[in-house]
């Protein structure tokens, strides 16, 4: 199941020299989640999860505070949460999550990205049934065996525990995100290298070499769209 999460995160962060895109996306997500509930992570579980994720990307406190203040204020800015499902080259499967204040603009941009890069949009549910919503928590300083003991001691379930290079990666149900983190914090883990809520494919595919450039172009175009928050796919692209 392992996807070399630390490497994936580094690749995403390095696409922009100043990581401004990642910061902007977290700012938008923090605002939306805080606006939906309370702008206090202690009473808003979803907000707490977003803030924990933001920590692993080193999102500046100023950006987080600005988003929270905006949610506490009188801003009437409204974002819609959208999910698009489609197919890339050679039947590859792609999920695109977006937050937008202009649904028509986002739909047109996502559709154009697919059609101009060898893909096509599918209907709702055409792809997502082949993916599992998953919490991914990673850290250093423990072995997989020690991690399992900590989870058992705290009565927390996990789907899988693996070691990737010098990290331990925990895969769990999304509802267990907070419980997994708290279990390891109580065991002395002070920093998490990965803290994600993601969509993992049930099976990965390998593309023929001639299709890889077109697929990578499609993913890059989708990730570059201003309204897109996350892009998931089932192509094995580990290096």
UniProtKB/TrEMBL annotation:
InterPro entries: Integrase-like_N (IPR017856), TACO1_YebC-like_2nd/3rd_dom (IPR048300), TACO1_YebC_N (IPR049083), Transcrip_reg_TACO1-like (IPR002876), Transcrip_reg_TACO1-like_dom3 (IPR026564), Transcrip_reg_TACO1_YeeN (IPR026562), YebC-like (IPR029072)
Claim: Lipid biosynthesis is one of the keywords in the record: no
Species this chain originates from: Paenibacillus spiritus
Chief subcellular location: cytoplasm
One GO process term, biological-process aspect: regulation of DNA-templated transcription
Record protein name field: Probable transcriptional regulatory protein F4V43_13400
A GO MF term: DNA binding
Gene Ontology cellular-component terms listed: cytosol
Residue intervals of the TACO1/YebC-like N-terminal domain: 3-73
């Amino acid at each position: 199941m392992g996807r070399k999460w630390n490497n994936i995160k580094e690749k995403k962060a390095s696409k922009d020299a100043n990581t401004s895109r990642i910061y902007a996306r977290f700012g938008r997500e923090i605002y939306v989640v805080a606006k939906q509930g309370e702008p206090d992570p202690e009473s808003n579980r979803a907000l707490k999860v977003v803030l924990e994720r933001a920590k692993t990307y080193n999102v500046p406190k100023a950006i987080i505070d600005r988003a929270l203040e905006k949610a506490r204020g009188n801003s009437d800015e409204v974002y819609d949460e959208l999910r698009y499902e489609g197919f890339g080259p050679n039947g590859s499967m792609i999920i695109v999550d977006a937050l937008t204040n202009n649904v028509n603009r986002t739909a047109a941009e996502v559709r154009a990205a697919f059609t101009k890069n060898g893909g096509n949009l599918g209907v709702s549910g055409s792809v997502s049934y082949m993916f599992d919503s998953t919490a991914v928590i990673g850290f250093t300083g423990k072995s997989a065996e020690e991690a399992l003991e900590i989870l058992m001691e705290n009565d927390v379930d996990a789907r899988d525990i693996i070691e990737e290079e010098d990290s331990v990666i925990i895969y769990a149900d999304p509802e267990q995100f907070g419980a997994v983190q708290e279990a390891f914090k109580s065991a002395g883990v002070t920093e998490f290298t990965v803290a994600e809520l993601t969509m993992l494919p049930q099976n990965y595919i390998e593309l023929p070499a001639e299709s890889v450039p077109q697929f990578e172009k499609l993913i890059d175009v989708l990730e570059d769209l201003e309204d897109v928050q996350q892009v998931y796919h089932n192509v094995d692209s580990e290096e």
